Amino acid sequence: MHEMALARDILRKIVEAAGVGYEVSGKRVAYVKVQLGASRFTHMEELKELLTEVSKGTIVEGAKIEFVISPVKSACADCGTEFKPGKKMSFACEKCGSSNIQLTSGNELVIKEIR
Prior knowledge:
The protein is built from 2 helices and 6 strands; from the N terminus they run αβαβββββ. It is an alpha+beta fold.
């Protein structure tokens, strides 16, 4: 289950950003803003439910978690054209047809704010 692995990664990043261990140690996380790339998940509601589940018994349990979603964007390494891949996630440049494409946005997992 892809979302479960992602939920665990998010929890790990939050705990690292808080600078303490997973166990409840007097310090609790109340709020987190997570920048998450659109290519990293398929079902946001399922991800939120799983994050609630994996955070039980940790410093993150009960925290409000806000997601900021980064759209998927690509760039052609040959001609420099930037574009958003279509629904079929085409990996060819819209301008020159090159397959030398790099993902420039949409794969992030960054803790932007924590309280």
